[in-house]
Design brief:
transferase; 15 strands; Cu_polyphenol_OxRdtase_sf; hydrolase; single chain; 27% strand; Cytotoxic_necrot_fac-like_cat; CNF1/YfiH-like putative cysteine hydrolases; alpha/beta; 20% helix; zinc
Length: 251
C-alpha cells in the first residue's frame, strides 16, 4: 500500500470500528524544511516552532480531530502509564490510556515502536511508546494490565497494532543492549560481530502473552529506516530529523 504524500497511515486492524480514529503520521504533507522535511510533529526538535504548529494543525485536521482533544506526555523511555479521562499534557509517562470518547491518546516516535490498542468491549484505548528500554521493562504488558485494573479490559476484546519503527535488520546493538532480550528477539551477526534486535516481535509478544487473539494483532509492514522516504529515523539521520506520532481514540 503506497503511503507517499499521505499525512498518515491508518492501521487496517482498526478499520472495522467506525467509532475509532487511529493513525500514525508519515513525513509527508507538512511545511518543515530539511532536515525536518516535511511533516515534523516533534516540539523537542530544533525545527521552527511555527512550522511544527502548522504541521500539527494539518495532521489533526486530516484525522478530523482538534489539538485540544489530545492526551500525551513527555516520554522518558520508562514504563509509567497515564490514566486519564481528559485531554492534556503530562510528564514522565510512556503510555496513555482512556475510556472517554473525544479524548485521543498520543505518543511520539522516530525509531521507537508505537503500539496502539483498542478494547472493543469497554471502549478503552491506549497509545504506547516502546524503545528498547520500554520494551524490556514490559511497558505493553503493564499498560494492558492497567487497562484491566482500571476498566475491566478482557484480552478477547482487544485489538492491537504494533507500529512503524526501526526494523530488525537495521537495529544493530552491542551486548549491553542485546543481553536484555531473550534469544527469540535477537540475532547474532558473525560478519559484523553485532546483535540485531527485533522490537516489533518483542512488543507483539507482549500482546499475545496478555491473551490477545493472533488475528486481532496487526503489525506495520513499514520501517523507519528502509522506508525513510516516508518516515523519520533518528538513527539513520543521525539525530537530525523530525518526529512522527501515533494516535488513537473514539469519536
Amino acid at each position: 500500500m503506497p503511503i507517499s504524500s499521505r499525512l498518515f497511515y491508518s492501521p487496517p486492524i482498526f478499520h472495522s470500528f467506525p467509532e475509532l480514529i487511529a493513525g500514525e503520521s508519515t513525513r509527508h504533507g507538512g511545511v518543515s524544511e530539511p532536515p525536518y522535511a516535511s511533516l515534523n510533529l516533534g516540539g523537542s526538535t530544533q525545527d521552527d516552532p511555527e512550522h511544527v504548529a502548522e504541521n500539527r494543525r494539518r495532521f489533526y485536521a486530516s484525522l478530523g480531530i482538534e489539538a485540544d482533544q489530545v492526551a500525551s506526555s513527555h516520554q522518558v523511555h520508562g514504563s509509567e502509564v497515564w490514566v486519564t479521562d481528559q485531554p492534556g499534557r503530562q510528564q514522565g509517562h510512556d503510555a496513555v490510556i482512556t475510556n472517554q470518547p473525544g479524548v485521543f491518546t498520543l505518543v511520539t516516535v522516530a525509531d521507537c515502536t508505537p503500539i496502539l490498542v483498542y478494547d472493543a468491549g469497554t471502549k478503552a484505548v491506549a497509545a504506547i511508546h516502546a524503545g528498547w528500554r520500554g520494551t524490556v521493562a514490559g511497558i505493553v504488558a503493564k499498560t494492558l494490565q492497567t487497562m484491566q485494573e482500571q476498566y475491566g479490559t478482557q484480552p478477547k476484546d482487544c485489538y492491537g497494532y504494533v507500529g512503524t519503527c526501526i526494523d530488525e535488520c537495521s537495529f544493530e546493538v552491542g551486548a549491553d543492549v542485546a543481553d536484555h532480550f531473550i534469544s527469540d528477539f535477537k540475532r547474532w551477526d558473525e560478519t559484523r560481530e553485532k546483535f540485531f534486535v527485533d522490537l516489533k516481535a518483542a512488543n507483539a509478544q507482549q500482546l499475545r502473552d496478555f491473551g490477545m487473539p493472533e488475528h486481532q494483532i496487526g503489525i506495520s509492514p513499514y520501517s523507519t529506516v528502509l522506508n525513510n522516504q516516508d518516515y523519520f529515523s533518528h538513527r539513520l539521520e543521525k539525530g537530525l530529523t523530525g518526529r512522527m506520532v501515533a494516535v488513537i481514540g473514539r469519536k
